[in-house]
Amino acid sequence: MLIKEQGDHAGAGVSEEILYRIDIPANRYDLLCLEGLVDGLLVFQGKKSPPKFQLKKYEDSHSLHLTPATAQIRPFAVAAVLKGVTFTKESYDSFIDLQDKLHQNICRKRTLVAIGTHDLDTIHGPFIYDALPPSEIKFKALNQQKEMTAPELMELYSSHAQLKQYLGIIRDSPVYPVIKDKNGVVLSMPPIINGDHSKITLDTKNVFIECTATDLTKAIVVLDTVVSMFSKYCSTPYEVEQCKVFSTDGTYELYPKMQYREEIINVEKANKYIGISEDGDKLATLLSRMCLTATHEESLVRVRVPPTRHDVIHACDIYEDIAIAYGYNRIARVPSRVVSAGGQVPLNKLTEQLRQECAHAGYTEALTFTLCSREDVATKLGVKIEDVPAAHISNPKTLEFQVVRTLLLPGLLKTLAANKKMPLPLKLFEISDVVVKDDKAECGARNVRRACGVHCGRAAGFQLVHGLLDRLMALLAVPCHPERGYSLRQCEDPAYFPGRCAEVLLRQQVIGKIGVIHPNVLTAFELTNPCSVVEIDIEPFV
């Protein structure tokens, strides 16, 4: 954030601008506008008490009703009203700027939340949030001269410098979201554009704010932030009027929430974590400077977290604010109480050693993507995705990155396909992590370090990759013995040629497979030359 200051050049009387560059943490949404920044500085300096926000009783005429069709595209909405607002050119610009910054930040370029602000005196509630076929939506968009249908607006904004990046959010949907008042006047078509009829100006006194979203929690945070920052300009400062938002089943919630909550921290623990020695009263004072009203009770500090501080979600966030108010530079440096020597993780050390030996064996190392498509780990290998213990990405951006790989083989086969013009044989290897689902793991999945080697040439056979396996086992001092070392056992796998696939066993435990790739798999990966593969877990050798 840049802040300008006007000054006179010494001795010359020439006016010049002084710019202050202030870095704002990504999670401090309350500091993204000048209003929040100034309030924060004044409270920090003790020149002002933290603002106390009040919720005004709702008016039924300002309610927002959701229709069932909205579930197809943006299923959530929240709303609020600011009464008696007095805008200046500076505060109006700041109001618009905060919305833009929130859109780029927590709203993830309007994909999660889209903010709409309207002159309440130009529209009549209750309001309806609906989703209609594009051809049925027609209104005069912001700063346009005539009414246009939704498809015409999408075509118009396809070359717009700012708005074209948002069109893809709803372009392929059979319905577009739209908010209307009780007379059918269109307020907005989120997340693209507001209507010109209800645009706010410097003369606007009452502001209706609506947020449509795919993430309700983010919408609540965004609405709280906007109204808390600009309620200071209301006729009754820091007073916000709630709105009823009716869901499709007829029940309603009141927004904004503007909830205060209480956290309790231990004085001794806070001092220990930060590395200071202050009493509870001092810690409470430091927190109050950070807009976290606090009181000291015996060995505890009660902290009241305001609706502007959605970034405070854990006790460690409160410790951090104490450290910031105390001053990091004032915290005494002390020698570490633990004597230790740094060392490489054994698994990583083994990985580096095996990489070097695979290269000495004539194989070229590849580094492939950790994410891949469902077809890569399932369909192309002749199995169903339901039978693969893969960790799926909940919101994949492309079809190429839908799951975390469970094998290294697909990545190496795709690398071979991209290098078909290279002279044969092509010998590639990779030693990296794969991820498999594991209900016993804390996060439901675990990493497994694997080594994979692929030989692509005019012919295929066990001997082409068995040599690499024998070399690695010899270096790991593992004998070829069914009980005390490693051995092979014939098996069947749809990814491998029938009768030419074997499991690699270490002390009777399966650690991988070796064999000749099935022609169907080669075709699926657009390969024309036969391939031999060995892939094993290396963690059992650590």
TrEMBL record:
The protein's required cofactors: Mg(2+)
Reactions catalysed: tRNA(Phe) + L-phenylalanine + ATP = L-phenylalanyl-tRNA(Phe) + AMP + diphosphate + H(+)
EC number, as in UniProt: 6.1.1.20
GO molecular function: ATP binding; magnesium ion binding; phenylalanine-tRNA ligase activity; RNA binding
Subcellular location: Cytoplasm
Residue span(s) of domain B5: 258-333
This protein's UniProt keywords: Aminoacyl-tRNA synthetase, ATP-binding, Cytoplasm, Ligase, Magnesium, Metal-binding, Nucleotide-binding, Protein biosynthesis
Pfam families: B3_4, B5, PhetRS_B1, tRNA_synthFbeta
UniProt protein name: Phenylalanine--tRNA ligase beta subunit
GO BP annotations listed: phenylalanyl-tRNA aminoacylation
Protein origin, superkingdom: Eukaryota
PROSITE patterns, sorted: B5
